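sorry for the late reply, my laptop died twice this morning and i had to redo everyting from scratch. anyway the thing you sent over, i finally got around to it. pasting the sequence first so we're on the same page, its 99 residues, then the predicted structure underneath. double check i copied it right bc i was rushing
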Amino acid sequence: MTYFPALILALFGLGVVIKNRQAVLMFMGVEILLAAANWTVLLAVDQHLINQHVAVFVLFGIVVAAAEATIGLSIVMRLAKRHKTIDVGRFSQLGDGRE
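ok and here's the structure:
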């Protein structure tokens, strides 16, 4: 029962990724999935008293996820500015836009 909130969070993130075709919402869904994974690992470390150094790696993972969110969101915003849409179906290629 301890992992139930993390499971709900992971299912919510997966639902957001599957349902939406907008790049920003898909990106948010992936970030929710990463948060659920980090939460699950922290719960496992706390509940089973595994090596406490695992918590340091999880915190490092949270920092990397924050950096990934910053870079990924800037890429999504750049694509939205270039293609005038955030629908991932409209992004045919990641070239320079000179066709």
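The longest helix spans residues 53-83.
thats about all i looked at so far, will dig more tmrw
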